[in-house]
UniProtKB/TrEMBL annotation, chain A:
Keywords: Cytoplasm, Nucleus. It is found in: Cytoplasm, Perinuclear region; Nucleus, Nucleoplasm. PANTHER family: MULTIFUNCTIONAL METHYLTRANSFERASE SUBUNIT TRM112-LIKE PROTEIN, UPF0315 PROTEIN-RELATED. This is Multifunctional methyltransferase subunit TRM112-like protein. One of its GO terms (biological process) is tRNA methylation. The keyword Lyase does not apply. Pfam families: Trm112p (PF03966). Belongs to the TRM112 family. It comes from the Eukaryota. GO terms for cellular component: nucleoplasm; perinuclear region of cytoplasm. GO terms for molecular function: protein heterodimerization activity.
UniProtKB/TrEMBL annotation, chain B:
It is found in: Cytoplasm. Its EC number is 2.1.1.214. Pfam families: N6_Mtase, Tmrp11_N. Belongs to the class I-like SAM-binding methyltransferase superfamily. TRM11 methyltransferase family. One of its GO terms (biological process) is DNA restriction-modification system. This is tRNA (guanine(10)-N(2))-methyltransferase. SUPFAM superfamilies: S-adenosyl-L-methionine-dependent methyltransferases. GO terms for molecular function: DNA binding; tRNA (guanine(10)-N2)-methyltransferase activity; tRNA binding. One of its GO terms (cellular component) is cytoplasm.
Amino acid sequence: MKLLTHNMLTSNIIKGVTKGYPLKIECQQIEIVETEFNKEFLEKMIPKIDYGVLCRAADQIGHLGDLPKVLPETSDYNEEFMKELHRVLLKVEIKEGNLVCPETGRKFPVSNGIPNMLLNEEEV
Amino acid sequence: MLRKYILQFTQDYLEFRLPEFFSIASSFNIPVKIDDQLSSKQNPVLVVEVPSEECLRKIANRTVLLRNVIEYWGSGKTIDEVKSEIENLPKEITEPYVKNEKTSFSVKFHSSNHNIDLQEKVIKIDNFLESYPINGKVNLKNPEKVFHLIECYKDKRETSIPILDRMYFGRFICDSDRNSIKDFHLSKRKVIGNTSMDAELSFIISNISQSKSGGFIYDPFVGTGSLLVACAKHGAFVSGCDIDKKLLSGRGKSSRKGQKWRDRDETVRGNLKQYGLDNRYFDVLIADTSKQAMWNIKDTMFDAIVTDPPYGIREPTVKSGNNETKLSNDQTKMVYVMTDILSDLLLFAAKYLHIGGRLVFWLPVYREEYVLENIPENKAMQCIFNCEQILNSKVSRRLLTYQKTRAFQPDTDNNVHFGKNHYEESFRDRINTNIIGFLTFE
């Protein structure tokens, strides 16, 4: 699971949960995967993501690297920034671990890179 | 000046040809004008005007329903009419190709709506060359220039004897991307499920969805990811979700003949990897598409949504919930009614597609009952293509394409309207007897 996906997921499908965002990450295994670098895609994504959540998540799992904690001005999107953003958004992959609901502590397992967001009967 | 070209299409998927071609053209911002007078109404031959040959090469390089592109030189009811049109062309178009004695050439003959045997074809080519000689040596195997002579006949159902509608002559420009279908055939696919979409249709759907480099595409009923393979081949980043945990994790029974269990790498990623496309794999999730609240998306996220939803025709349709019977594992599944699937799909698209983005999916219909009002409506989405693929005399499926026309407005766009809903009752029961066995992949 990539950090961009983490950026888009909440746990407010659970009964009683109001916000469920951002999900906490419990990480057992991380892999760096080869993903195509596409500047156009990254530029399109920047306004769509919660940049603060992205940085905190990356920091928490120890892969923030040189990504600036505050989003630079559009004019300062240099090559270095784009490469770091590409790495954090699309290359760092949580292979094994859990996503944890911030309100209830319910764990959504991530196995072989695939998060399982299904709930049990009594949770819906 | 706009130049004229002849497009020769395949005989398959009649209703899909123009949506595919024009979707690609518009995604590259290439204006294409159809010449109605020169095009043959009853044949897969279209004459179009485009700004340049390069533009057409770009489109042809993506389409699978086109066979080839021919530079238009002339057409008419007789050889003389064709010849006089060719002779009126600017010399720089024809002369470099017909006057040069040193280069080899061949003339290919095609007919449509009427079978012509080899001997007769040779006579027709000879007759043409007698009237319009081309310099150079004939070389059928490896010619340096190729010309096409095409005869289009009137529809057989309308006439008892073959009647020539129009003949065309021109210079071969390029083939289409049709050959890739072979390389992506399901029989060679790493991972298949019971409902994997065949390569040709996957390419068509990907093209209609306008997938391209830098795009982001989502399949909410991803299965083995056969649609995503095509979208990734066309350059997009691909993602999806499915409720079937076993399928996504490469576990459970295999759908392939002679193989009992799936391998652990039989995943969507594994499928992409087979074609060297795993660097465009984004993520898949085990999740219930009816639970849209799991998404925390600011405004919009995807360029296209492509899917073959499980209407319970070949696979039982499930969503997690608390009615119905407990099936297996830890999770309860309930019947996911077709109306709900359609509503969820349109709402998801209305919310999360970028403006101008497309939603492309299959809708199975009972042909006798189908009316245009069955097509679901949402105020932010406009249905732009509705192409029928007939499966048998009773049942067909329609590939619906919607384009998002404006930003989602919660007050007005939060519902999906059915002019006439014939999916309320168990569609599966009615359609089952007519379709089972027809779509199963062997």
